[in-house]
């Protein structure tokens, strides 16, 4: 494990603190750890691994972009910002917010799209097993994300995510 990865893992654990996963109750930081592990299975950089660990920190904790930039610099923080939802609750209903977020992701760097694919894969597994009713909505949104925004991400992860969405559609 590189020094950058160790720092990012520590940072994610620190900022996510006592947060837990919605369906499992396990420490939240296990999700970014799983995302980083998936990213490691395809061509990647150390900055991508660091961003994978921290992909939800800005969105889900009091950590600011400025704090992250001061600690990790532009390359890592830029990736995290591409992975952070652009929409706010004031932007309208879920459908309107997801449209904003898809447009944001579509403009992202291919490296950020690879991390987003890993995030989608890890989240989908949990949601499919533990909330099949919500999974219908969630995977319909992810199908749009795959088709409209994530084609430039890693092709192996894209195929895995595509298969998850296709299998869910065939069941539902």
Quick take:
This protein is mostly helical and 172 residues long. Helix content is 73%, strand content 0%.
User: Number of helical segments?
Assistant: 9
> Which percent range fits the helix content?
over 70%
**Which regions have little confidence, pLDDT < 50, spanning 5+ residues?**
none
Which whole number gives the mean pLDDT?
94
Could you say how many structural domains there are in total? 1
Q: Which fold name corresponds to the CATH topology?
A: Hypothetical protein af1432
The CATH architecture assignment turns out to be Orthogonal Bundle
Let me know the number of strands: 0
Report the span from N to C terminus: 41 Å
The secondary-structure element order is: HHHHHHHHH
Structural category: mainly alpha
Main beta sheet: strand number and arrangement?
none
- CATH C-level class is Mainly Alpha
Shape: globular
The CATH superfamily is identified as Hypothetical protein af1432
């Amino acid at each position: 494990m590189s020094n950058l990865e160790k720092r990012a893992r520590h940072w994610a654990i620190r900022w996510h603190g006592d947060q837990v996963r919605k369906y499992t109750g396990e420490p939240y930081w296990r999700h970014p750890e799983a995302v980083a592990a998936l990213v490691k299975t395809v061509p990647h950089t150390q900055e991508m691994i660091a961003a994978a660990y921290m992909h939800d920190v800005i969105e889900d904790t009091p950590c600011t972009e400025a704090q992250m930039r001061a600690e990790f610099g532009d390359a890592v923080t830029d990736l995290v910002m591409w992975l952070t939802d652009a929409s706010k609750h004031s932007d309208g209903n879920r459908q309107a917010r997801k449209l904003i977020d898809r447009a944001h992701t579509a403009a992202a760097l291919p490296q950020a799209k690879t991390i987003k694919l890993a995030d989608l894969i890890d989240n989908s597994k949990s949601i499919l097993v533990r909330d099949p009713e919500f999974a219908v909505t969630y995977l319909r949104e992810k199908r749009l994300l795959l088709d409209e925004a994530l084609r430039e991400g890693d092709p192996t992860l894209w195929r895995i995510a595509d298969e998850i969405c296709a299998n869910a559609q065939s069941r539902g």
